[in-house]
Amino acid sequence: DFLFFWGAVFLITTTLVALLKKENKELTPTKEETKGITDTYKLLFSIIKMPAVLTFCLLILTAKVGFSAADAVTGLKLVEEGVPKEHLALLAVPMVPLQIILPLIISKYTAGPQPLNTFYKAMPFRLLLGLEFAFLVWWTPKVKHEGGFPVYYYVVVLLSYALHQITLYSMYVAIMAFNAKVSDPLIGGTYMTLLNTVSNLGGNWPSTVALWLVDPLTVKECMGAQDQACGTTVAAEV
C-alpha cells in the first residue's frame, strides 16, 4: 500500500510537470552541442572511445566487486538468522542524519585537485568492513536467545552500519566530485551523466551477481534425513 500510494504520487506529479511546465523562451540557449537523441548518443560514443575515459570506465565497473557480497547479502543473512526485519528497518532511522551530514564533511576533502584520493583511502576500510559483516553474520545465531536479541547486539549492528556508511559515502562523494571535475563544461550534462551511469552500474552488477551466487555457494545440511542431499533448492524442499 505504501509503495502503491507513492508510486501514484510520482506518476501524478511528473505528469503534471510534463503538461503544465513551460520552457522559458527568453533564456539564451545552452551551448551544449547536442540537438537531439541521435546526436546525444553519437556524442556519448565519441566520449567513451577516448582512452582515458575507457580505462576509467573499466576501473569503476570492477572497483566494487570486493564488497558487493557484504553490501547485498548481509541484511538478508541477518534476517535469515532470525533478526526481525522491522528491527533492521528501524536501525535505518539513525542513519538518516549521518547520510545528510557525511557528504557535507567529505566534500571538504574532495574539493581539491585530486578528489579520487578519498576514494582510494576509503576502499581498504570498506573491504575490511566486509570481513566484519561476515563476522557479524557468524556471531548472530550465537547471541540469539528465547527473548530475541540483546540490546548490545543491536548497538554493534548500528555501529557497523554507521562505519559502512562513512566508507560508502567517502567513495560515492569522491567519485561524483571526480566526474564533475573531468567533465567538459560544454557538454557537461551528457558527459557527467555517462560517468555517473557507469559508476552506478559498477555498484549494481556485482551486487546482482553476489545475490545470484549466494544460494549455490551456501552449504546446506539435512537434519533428520539420512542420505538426503540438499544442495539444490528442490532437494532442500524435499
CATH topology: Growth Hormone, Chain: A
Highest CATH level, the class = Mainly Alpha
Which architecture name does CATH use? Up-down Bundle
Tell me the helix content: over 70%
**How much β-strand is present in the residues?**
under 5%
Give the number of DSSP strands.
0
- Given as residue ranges, the uncertain stretches (5+ residues, pLDDT < 50) are none
Describe it.
The chain has 238 residues and is mostly helical. It has one domain: Growth Hormone, Chain: A (Up-down Bundle). It is 72% helix and 0% strand. The protein is built from ten helices and no strands. It has helices at residues 2-20, 37-48, 51-62, 68-80, 85-91, 95-110, 116-143, 151-182, 188-214, 233-237. Helix 3 (51-62) packs parallel to helix 9 and helix 4 packs across helix 9 (188-214). The protein is globular, with a radius of gyration of 23 Å. The model has no long low-confidence stretch (mean pLDDT 87).
Task: Itemize the secondary structure elements and their pairings.
Blueprint lengths: L1 H19 L16 H12 L2 H12 L5 H13 L4 H7 L3 H16 L5 H28 L7 H32 L5 H27 L18 H5 L1
Question: Notable features of this structure?
Answer:
AmpG_permease/AT-1, 238 residues, Growth Hormone, Chain: A, transmembrane helix
